[in-house]
Amino acid sequence: MLEVRGLAKHFGGVRSVDGIDFTIRPGEVFGLIGPNGSGKSTTVNLISGLYEPTGGQILFEGNDIGRVPAHRRLSLGLARTFQNIRLFSNLTVWENLWMAENAPSHRTGGFLKRWIGGRKEARDRMKRALEFSGLAHRADDFAGSLAFGEQRRLELARALAAEPKLLLLDEPAAGMNAEEIAELDERIRLLQKESYTILLIEHHMELVMAVTDRICVLNFGRKIAEGTPVEVQADAAVREAYLGAAA
Ligand SMILES: Nc1ncnc2c1ncn2[C@@H]1O[C@H](COP(=O)(O)OP(=O)(O)OP(=O)(O)O)[C@@H](O)[C@H]1O
Ligand SMILES: [Mg+2]
After folding, report:
1. 179 within 8 A of 173, measured Cβ to Cβ
2. Smallest CA separation from ligand 1 atom 28, residue
C-alpha cells in the first residue's frame, strides 16, 4: 500500500529523517515509534505532503506521490491526524468536518448533479465518522468547548470522514486518560476489522504493542529496528535507544 524508499528530510544541518525504508501492507496496523525528536512526525508530514522530501521516494499504491500536493493526497486516500490538535475552536464539531471535506475526484455526471450528490454523500460519510468517534451528540457544540479527549476524537472523525485507504495517526493517545486510551484501542481494532490500513505513531507502549502488526523504530532520523511487537521489544538497539533517551 505504502512504500518509503531512502526517504530523507533535512532542515539546514538537521537531518530529521535521514534515509529510511519501510513498507506498509494493505490492512496492516503499522507502528512508528522512537524517542522524542527521532523523526516520526516529520515522516508523517512527508507522507501526507506537508513537507517536500530532501531525498527518496514515497510510493502509494505503486505511484510516486513525493511531489503531489497535500490536498490531492487526501483525495488519493491518505488522511491524517495531528500530534498538536488542529481544530477551529470557534466552529462547531460539524463545521469542523465540513472545513476538511474534500470530495473524491472520480464522480461522473454534470456539475450540478455531482455537486448535490457529492454533498449528500459527504454528509453521510461525516455522520458515520462522528458516530464512530462517539461525537454524534456533540455535533452542534463548538469544538473549543470539547474536553481534550473529545477534541482528539474529533481529529480522528475528521480524518475518517474522508474514508481514507491509509490513515496516519500521530500520537492519538497523547493527553488521554486510561479510559480514553482503552476506547481508542477498541476503535483502532474496529478500523482494522474494516480493513483500514493504519500508520500509528505513539509513545504509549502498551497501546502500540497491543494493536500493531509490525513496528518500525526510528532513532536520530534513522531506522534502527523493524519487526513484530515481540521482536522489537526484545531488540538490543531499541532498548538502548529508549534507555539512552531516558538517561
Ligand atoms: N520544520 C522544522 N524545522 C526545523 N527542524 C525541524 C522541523 N520539524 C522537525 N524538526 C526537527 O527534526 C527532528 C525530528 O522531529 P520530529 O518532530 O519528526 O520528531 P518526533 O519523532 O515526532 O518527536 P516527538 O516524539 O517529540 O513528537 C527534531 O530535532 C526537530 O527539532
Ligand atoms: Mg512527533
Report:
1. no
2. 37
Instruction: Give the ligand 1 atom nearest the CA of 12.
Output: 4
**pTM for this entry:** 0.91
Q: Where are the alpha helices (DSSP H) in 108-222?
A: 111-132, 148-160, 178-193, 205-211
State the distance from the centre of ligand 2 to the C-alpha of 31, rounded, in angstroms. 13
The CATH classification number of 2-77+164-246 equals 3.40.50.300
Q: What residues contact residue 188 under an 8 Å CB cut-off, 6+ apart?
A: 29, 198, 200, 211
Is the predicted pLDDT of residue 236 greater than 70, yes or no?
yes
What cell does 85 get? 490538535
Give the pLDDT confidence of 128-153 residue by residue, as tens digits: 999 999 999 999 999 999 999 999 99
Sheet with 29-33, side-by-side order of all strands: 78-80, 166-170, 197-201, 29-33, 214-219, 222-227
What average pLDDT score do residues 185-198 get?
95
Which ligand sits nearest to residue 40's alpha carbon?
Answer: 1
Report the pLDDT averaged over residues 175-186: 93
Domain spans, the chain: 2-77+164-246, 92-163
For the chain, the average pLDDT equals: 90
Minimum CA distance residue for ligand 1 atom 1: 11
